[in-house]
Amino acid sequence: MTRFIYQSWWKVLAVIMLFYTLIAGFLFDVPELPILHETIRNVYFHVPMWIAMFTVFTISVVYSVMYLNTGKEAYDLVAVECVNTGTFFYILGLLTGMLWARYTWGAFWSNDPKQNSAAIAFLLYCAYAVLRNSIDEEQKRAKISAIYNIFAFPIMVVLIMVLPRMTDSLHPGNGGNPAFGKLDMDNHMRVVLYPAFIAWSLIAIWIASLRYRIRLIEYKKNEIN
Amino acid sequence: MKKIFLLALLFLCCGVAFGQSNQPVEMADTLRSSGKIYVVIATVAIIFTGLAIYLFTIDRRLKKIEKDK
């Protein structure tokens, strides 16, 4: 597993796939829908931000569990950098969503249930960073933040994926209308959308792995001194 | 007679000139077709190429540092 991040084939694959989605995302046919018009292409760029975020957050939880099992410091470093990268994509997802909402729903923020719970879940991960930075002792910090991470993740999933679906929301897939269903998606879009999910997830993993490697060097340097 | 002929010629030129301005300018150039969307695609492609190269460079530099250890 640790060998994987030093290999480059999947990085090349990610770049090629992303290239394809960038070009195809602009050129391929999309359903002609009222209000949305060409902004439906935002699906190719806004939604993959969240998928990328979910991917690195999931990896972070896995490594938090592995840290608690083994006590290996390196696992804790992976978990932190995955959360950091995930938070970055979280911000991108929120901003792109707000811009899109401005021109389709009428306002940057219309207190849509999904928007609100995404904002709350964002605070959860901000709290993770605050928690980490407030503990000086290394092992304590790693242990407490690993436990926090394991609890924060399911709450985030419930906030973003479950609760908005139980009420009326402007987001597709909420309040009874299907997400990526017949109404707002066709097979032409899936051809671009699913590669975009994979490509952006790989890019997120790549960035997280780079951050982890830098942090590992810093960690070893501090250990010697 | 010569003057009238010249005048007629000038009017003709004028007519031709106006006629041309009404015609759509057609260029056999994909970068200018379909609302010039290809220009945007090229821009995005350049930006992403730059970012990808940047990521690869960071990766290589890190590899070098890791080898030194």
Explain what the structure shows:
The complex is a heterodimer of chains A (225) and B (69). Chain A is mainly α and 225 residues long. Helices cover 72% and strands 0% of the residues of chain A. Chain A has helices at residues 9-27, 43-70, 73-104, 113-133, 138-162, 187-224. The longest helix of chain A has 38 residues, at 187-224. The two termini of chain A are 29 Å apart. The model of chain A has no long low-confidence stretch (mean pLDDT 90). Chain B is an all-alpha fold and 69 residues long. Chain B is built from two helices and no strands. Chain B has helices at 2-22, 37-68. Classes of the chains: A mainly alpha (225), B mainly alpha (69). The interface between A and B is medium-sized, with 17 and 16 residues.
Main interface pair? A-B, 17 and 16 residues
Shape, per Cα inertia axes of chain B: rod-shaped
Biggest sheet details of chain B: none
Mean pLDDT of chain B: 76
* Radius of gyration of chain B, in angstroms, nearest whole number: 29 Å
Distance between the termini of chain A: 29 Å
Sketch the topology of chain A as an H/E string, one letter per element.
Answer: HHHHHH
Number of E-type strands of chain A? 0
Please indicate the percent range of residues of chain B in DSSP E strands (runs of 2 or more).
Answer: under 5%
Per DSSP, the total helix count of chain B is 2
What characterizes the major β-sheet of chain A? none
Rg calc of chain A: 19 Å
Class by alpha and beta content of chain B: mainly alpha
Low-confidence stretches of chain B: none
Discrete helix count of chain A: 6
Number of domains of chain A: 1
Share in β-strands of chain A: under 5%
Give the tags.
heterodimer; A: 225 residues; mainly alpha; 6 helices; 72% helix; globular; B: 69 residues; 0% strand
Can I get a quick summary?
Chain A is mainly α and 225 residues long. Chain A is 72% helix and 0% strand. In chain A, helix 4 packs antiparallel against helix 5.
